């Protein structure tokens, strides 16, 4: 506003050019004068003219505007082309099993994007820790984050054949109360597993000697005959196909876990993040890794 008034010598003309009210322009031009305790304009009834201080100030302001224009030019291409470093957080098991094969494909498709993938089962603070996006599995906490659903995977109750051979095989979920249950400590209710059949809902309190914050640990323990696990189908894959694990209660429905991408609310979604989200949802759908396991179960 100051530069426009200096160029035109008139609040009215500057206001018209800027599509603002004359009072707004006048107030904002007077603000630096009040702050600096200097007169920047000589005012007459006909025209404004710069004082010596005003002329110096105008030259500096022009440099500032040029620097802003240069800053705009330096990043304007980012508004249309995916570019830059994308920092992604994901749970360890899902990252290794599902994201690991997909990230190289994404990098091939977008050569101007760099990906920093951090695998950690804890829930990171996206804003405080500088993440662009996090992959989260299961129910989401209430927050200011934006969530996009990517896929869903049912939970399955599984055990090793050797574990079941050493005891009567349970036929009803309630019988889990007497078995060694391998529990996921980061779950919403690690000590309660839910099943449904024909409108009947059964919630079983479970217990056991192993609790872990990683699904692969629980899966491997189940395969080693240490108990029964309640895990997403995407973790079970070849174990079910090869018979190293078998499912229990096949006539009961279980919960499913939803895979979301969550990211901070922003007025304009960065192109690099939009590209990642647009790639990841269809890519997970095409691979459908848990559907392979579901087919083997059927």
What does this molecule look like?
The chain is an alpha/beta fold. The protein has twelve helices and 14 strands.
Shape by Cα distribution: elongated
Compute the gyration radius: what is it?
31 Å
N/C terminus separation: 71 Å
Helix content: 25-40%
The number of helices is 12
> What percentage of amino acids are in beta strands?
15-25%
Summarize the structure.
The chain has 298 residues and is of the alpha/beta class. The protein is built from twelve helices and 14 strands.
Descriptors for this entry?
40% helix, three-stranded antiparallel beta sheet, alpha/beta, disordered C terminus, elongated, 298 residues, 12 helices
Q: How is the topology of this model organized?
A:
Blueprint: H1 2-8, H2 11-18, H3 22-36, E1 41-43, E2 48-50, H4 52-75, E3 84-90, H5 92-99, H6 103-109, E4 113-119, H7 126-129, E5 133-137, E6 146-159, H8 161-165, E7 181-184, E8 192-197, E9 200-205, E10 211-212, H9 215-223, E11 228-232, H10 237-241, E12 246-247, E13 253-254, E14 256-263, H11 271-287, H12 289-297
């Amino acid at each position: 506003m100051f530069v426009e008034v200096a160029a035109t010598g008139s609040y009215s003309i500057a206001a018209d050019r800027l599509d603002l009210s004359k009072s707004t322009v006048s107030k904002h031009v007077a603000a630096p004068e009040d702050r600096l305790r200097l007169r920047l304009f000589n005012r007459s009834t006909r025209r404004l003219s710069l004082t010596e201080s005003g002329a110096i100030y105008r030259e500096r302001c022009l440099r500032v505007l040029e620097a802003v224009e240069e800053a705009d030019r330096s990043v304007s291409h980012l508004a249309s082309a995916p570019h830059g470093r994308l920092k992604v957080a994901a749970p360890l098991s899902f990252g290794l099993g599902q994201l690991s094969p997909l990230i190289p494909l994404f990098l091939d498709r977008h050569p101007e994007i760099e990906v920093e993938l951090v695998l950690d089962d804890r829930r990171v603070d996206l804003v405080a820790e500088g993440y662009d996006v996090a992959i989260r599995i299961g129910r989401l906490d209430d927050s200011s984050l934006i969530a996009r659903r990517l896929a869903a995977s049912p939970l399955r109750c599984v055990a090793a054949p050797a574990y079941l051979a050493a005891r009567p095989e349970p036929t009803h979920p309630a019988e889990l109360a007497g078995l060694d249950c391998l529990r996921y400590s980061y779950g919403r209710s690690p000590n309660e597993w839910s099943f449904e059949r024909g409108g009947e809902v059964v919630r079983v309190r479970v217990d056991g000697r192993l609790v872990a914050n990683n699904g692969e640990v629980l899966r491997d323990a189940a395969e080693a005959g240490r108990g029964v696990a309640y895990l997403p189908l995407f973790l079970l894959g070849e174990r079910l196909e090869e018979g190293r694990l078998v499912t229990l209660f096949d006539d009961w429905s279980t919960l499913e876990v939803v895979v979301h991408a969550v990211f901070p609310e922003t007025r304009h979604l960065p192109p690099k993040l939009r590209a990642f989200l647009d790639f990841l949802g269809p890519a997970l759908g095409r691979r459908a890794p848990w559907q392979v396991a579901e087919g083997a179960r059927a």
